């Protein structure tokens, strides 16, 4: 369902002229990112749940760690870019095509992916240099930073500090920027005369906010302070949520109440 839903959004955005807009360009990037999330984590997760031998090789573990960090940071920046797109569409409608021109959209999408790549290149080597315990028992569905910190037997204070800084940069700051943009959007919505126009704006923006709180809320709980009791006890649940549930719900949230996507479909 994750693959089918996200592929549908990508195909519709690329083939239907009605969806040839910055919003659907960024949505296609988000769908592609969710496909990468799924193919990186879910097959190994299903294999370990289904089979008797619940193991993962060191190579696959490293790949999961690097790709997961890259995709997570990219999604954090991409949602900010999507919030800016909605801000311009609602608050600066007459200048929308000038501000959100095609080359600039590509640059912003590239900026999001490069931010994720930089995060992975910085944090992955630091995490993999930890002194791991001899039992090599990863108490999680996949190899992510909090799970590997719990696996380490040496001093992890530097890694925890570095991860907290990353969590602030890629979760708390983006949420602040997104809420600021939606504050301006809320003011603009009150000035819209047409009831239909107001309803369409609220529907589009509310779907984005639902995705934002689902993703940032769960990630912040796990990554801001990985060794607190709540994160240690329920971390796997939140990991499962943002690796499986969020990619599954994103296509539904963005398309169920979207007239343009229904017509294109």
TrEMBL record:
Keyword Repeat tagged: no
Keywords, in A-Z order: Cell membrane, G-protein coupled receptor, Membrane, Olfaction, Receptor, Sensory transduction, Transducer, Transmembrane, Transmembrane helix
Which membrane topology describes this protein?
Multi-pass membrane protein
* Principal subcellular localization: membrane
User: A GO CC term?
Assistant: plasma membrane
Query: PROSITE patterns under this entry?
Result: G_PROTEIN_RECEP_F1_1 (PS00237), G_PROTEIN_RECEP_F1_2 (PS50262)
- Name the Gene Ontology molecular function terms of this record: G protein-coupled receptor activity; olfactory receptor activity
Which subcellular locations apply to this protein?
A: Cell membrane
Q: Does the keyword Transmembrane helix apply?
A: yes
Instruction: Quote the Pfam families the UniProt record gives.
Output: 7tm_4 (PF13853)
Q: Which family does it belong to?
A: Belongs to the G-protein coupled receptor 1 family.
Protein name per the record = Olfactory receptor
Q: Which gene encodes it?
A: LOC103211598
């Amino acid at each position: 369902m994750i693959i089918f839903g996200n592929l549908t959004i990508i195909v519709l955005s690329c083939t239907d002229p009605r969806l040839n807009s910055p919003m659907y360009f960024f949505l296609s990037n988000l769908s592609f990112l969710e496909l990468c999330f799924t193919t990186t984590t879910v097959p190994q997760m299903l294999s370990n749940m289904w089979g008797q031998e619940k193991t993962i090789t060191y190579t696959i573990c490293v790949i999961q760690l690097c790709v997961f960090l890259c995709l997570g940071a990219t999604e954090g920046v991409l949602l900010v870019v999507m919030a800016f797109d909605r801000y311009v569409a609602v608050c600066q409608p007459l200048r929308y095509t000038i501000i959100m021109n095609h080359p600039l959209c590509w640059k912003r999408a590239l900026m999001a992916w490069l931010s994720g790549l930089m995060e992975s290149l910085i944090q992955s080597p630091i995490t993999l240099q930890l002194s791991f315990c001899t039992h090599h028992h990863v108490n999680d569905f996949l190899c992510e930073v909090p799970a590997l910190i719990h696996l380490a037997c040496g001093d992890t204070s530097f890694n925890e500090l570095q991860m907290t800084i990353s969590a602030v940069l890629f979760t708390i700051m983006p949420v602040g920027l997104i809420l600021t943009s939606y504050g301006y959007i809320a003011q603009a919505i009150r000035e819209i005369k047409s009831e239909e126009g107001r309803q369409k704006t609220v529907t589009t923006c509310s779907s984005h906010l639902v995705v934002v709180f689902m993703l940032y809320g769960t990630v912040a709980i796990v990554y801001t302070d990985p060794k607190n009791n709540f994160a240690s006890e329920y971390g796997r649940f939140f990991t499962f949520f943002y690796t499986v549930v969020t990619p599954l719900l994103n296509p539904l949230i963005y398309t169920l109440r979207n007239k343009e996507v229904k017509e294109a479909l």
